[in-house]
Specification:
7 helices; two-stranded parallel sheet; Rossmann fold
Length: about 230
């Protein structure tokens, strides 16, 4: 599949006022990265600040490793791309066929209100190109508008990291917003599966996944949409 796909990562590394670090979630990058790459897609990694984006240290712990994360960490080409992400401000949706956002808590602080990210999402949407996000990354949709100037998620079926999952990781009072509540406030038709189980939703060009376990399924839906 000769498609160009943009993958957008967070540049934010502080977990609120806890003194702990956050960033992107490794598996949510690694699993989709290889689903898309192995299908022949050309991948471009980007972030608000460019360069090496911060990795959530919890996602680098042994308990969070998968075949995809192990492959990614041993892949010199992938590591080189990650170290040299392009700046969002220098990119144009015209160059790409789709955009995918991995999660981690970082996007709740920067990508949710990043003007360049919002511009790109709106341009992809206006050009009838797929927009995909998993776990906390559907937060990037909250301030994006559709062609009519309304919230992009309004009336659309979406999922994302749930209130109960946030409570389970003990960060309800740390995060700047609860994603489930924020999407519902924007008029989204929020749907959810069981905590930690794979759960994805597709509404036209909008593809979202609930949690880390959903990242591969989101990428497969994105591939199918591009092939259709």
């Amino acid at each position: 599949m000769k498609k160009n796909i943009l993958i957008v990562l967070t540049s934010h590394d502080k977990l609120g006022n806890t003194g702990k670090k956050t960033g992107f979630w490794l598996e949510e990058l690694a699993a989709p990265f290889y689903v898309l790459k192995d299908a022949g897609a050309t991948l471009t990694l980007a972030s608000p600040k460019g360069g090496q984006p911060p990795l959530d240290p919890k996602s680098d712990e042994e308990a969070s490793q998968t075949d995809a994360t192990r492959r990614f960490k041993k892949d010199p080409e992938a590591q080189g791309q990650l170290e040299a992400t392009q700046k969002l401000s220098e990119l144009d949706a015209v160059t790409f066929d789709a955009v995918f956002y991995p999660g981690g808590h970082g996007p709740l602080w920067d990508l949710v209100s990043d003007a360049d990210s919002i511009r790109l999402i709106e341009d992809f949407w206006a050009s009838n190109k797929p927009v995909a996000a998993v776990c906390h990354a559907p937060a990037v949709l909250l301030n994006a508008k559709d062609r009519d100037g309304g919230a992009l998620v309004r009336g659309r079926e979406v999922t994302g990291f749930t209130n109960t999952e946030e409570a389970a990781v003990g960060l309800t009072d740390v995060v700047p917003l609860l994603l489930e509540d924020a999407l519902i406030d924007r008029g989204a038709r929020f749907e959810r599966g069981d905590d930690w189980a794979p759960f994805v939703r597709q509404d036209g060009n909008l593809i979202t996944g609930q949690n880390p376990a959903s990242s591969e399924a989101v990428a497969k839906l994105l591939l199918a949409k591009l092939a259709a």
